[in-house]
Design brief:
With 373 residues, the protein is mainly α. The chain folds into 3 domains: 106 residues; 114 residues, no CATH class; 105 residues, no CATH class. Helix content is 67%, strand content 0%. Helix 18 packs antiparallel against helix 19. The chain is elongated.
Length: 373
């Protein structure tokens, strides 16, 4: 099928609201990325309007495998919507990795924001991205996260200034993983090599001595000073293991992602089911709280209760369809140690929360019930 025919297919599918057609629409866009003249086609005003108006909403509710394929395809194109690329960059690291690594849409300001908002895994991918700007390098050095510093030191496709190198060599006193990549950096000077010599193993010492022809007397003096500091307690060796993200860090990133989606008007009920299917209970809690304007602790209280109807009321308040609730309840129980309790009878009772009343009334009933529980 030609690029023009695919474009017409996209425009046709965009008029349909059927779930199957929405998925076909995403896949059609993914396939178009492989067409040689797709950049010209996707830059057309009609297609750009389509992308900006509906693409984000499609991706928010898309299955994980579709988002992964989309991220891979969009990682090298310059016509992808900025908001979409930034949302994909905050997705699970397997999805975000190709976007962070090479998307031309991501600017230095976007990368700095990822360093602040995302997990350590995402930050490591930022530090590995070729050709980082000075603003991004400065942000990495300021945060001083060992795993991210190590990734930066190994990124030979990003030039480092003398000041950057000095900060990294100084950090290598406590972060052993930094030493080997720093010893191989082309920007390493003789003065910095002398500092580094004190903290590296025998193999790297031989490499530094050969590369810089270091003065033996200077080496002896540096080693003696280091031994004196060690005896005085001046140098403490840090654990060189890479530090991965903690649960609270993941939840903070999820909160920021939910805020971005809500601000863009793209946080919708279908997102709740996607979060549960991907095993992200905390993301479900945050999204449901944001959609219903409920305190997150009220949602957690409902999930840990013996009354599934509380969760039913919260879902009814955000216009979840009654037919989707049994699936939501089952997934929540699987992720939450079979809570909310109540078994099959509780599940049947919970369906009464979807009675013939408005979402506003369901929201009021939820607030009253959870406060009294």
């Amino acid at each position: 099928m030609s690029a023009l025919a695919r474009t017409q297919e996209i425009l046709s599918l965009a008029k349909s609201r059927a779930p199957a057609d929405r998925e076909r629409l995403l896949m059609a866009v993914v396939d178009l990325c492989d067409v040689s003249d797709s950049a010209q086609i996707m830059g057309a005003p009609a297609i750009q309007d389509l992308l900006n108006s509906i693409f984000m909403s499609l991706v928010v509710e898309a299955e994980r495998e579709i988002r992964r394929r989309l991220a891979e395809k969009l990682s090298t194109v310059d016509w992808a919507p900025t908001a979409l690329v930034n949302v994909l960059a905050l997705d699970d690291i397997e999805i975000a990795r190709p976007i962070i690594a090479s998307s031309p849409v991501l600017k230095d300001s976007d990368l700095v924001r990822l360093l602040v908002e995302a997990t350590v895994e995402h930050q490591i991918e930022v530090a590995r991205r070729p050709g980082l700007g000075g603003e991004v390098v400065a942000a990495i050095l300021q945060q001083n996260e060992p795993a991210v510093l190590t990734a930066l030191a190994g990124n030979t496709q990003t030039p480092l200034s003398a000041g950057d190198m000095a900060l990294l060599v100084n950090a290598s006193r406590r972060v052993a993983a930094l030493r080997s990549p720093l010893a191989r950096r082309p920007e390493l000077t003789e003065d910095l090599a002398l500092q580094l010599y004190v903290w590296v193993g025998q193999a790297l010492r031989q490499s530094l001595t050969s590369r810089f022809r270091l003065d033996p007397a200077a080496l002896d003096a540096a080693l003696a000073e280091a031994v004196g500091q060690a005896h005085a307690g001046g140098v403490q060796e840090a654990d060189p293991a890479i530090v991965w993200q903690q649960d609270d860090e993941r939840e903070e990133m999820e909160r920021r992602l939910i805020s971005k989606l809500a601000a863009a008007g793209q946080l919708r009920p279908g997102y709740l089911l996607r979060a549960l299917r991907e095993g992200k209970l905390s993301l479900f809690v945050g999204a449901l709280a944001a959609l219903g304007d409920f305190p997150p602790e009220h949602i957690r209280k409902a999930l840990d209760s013996d009354r599934p109807e509380l969760l039913g009321l919260a879902c009814a308040a955000v216009s979840i369809d009654r037919s989707a609730f049994p699936t939501i309840l089952q997934l929540v129980r699987e992720l939450n140690e079979d809570r909310p309790c109540g078994g099959a009878e509780g599940a049947r009772r919970a369906l009464s929360a979807f009675g013939p009343f408005s979402p506003d009334l369901a929201a009021a009933a939820f607030r009253q019930a959870v406060a009294a529980h």
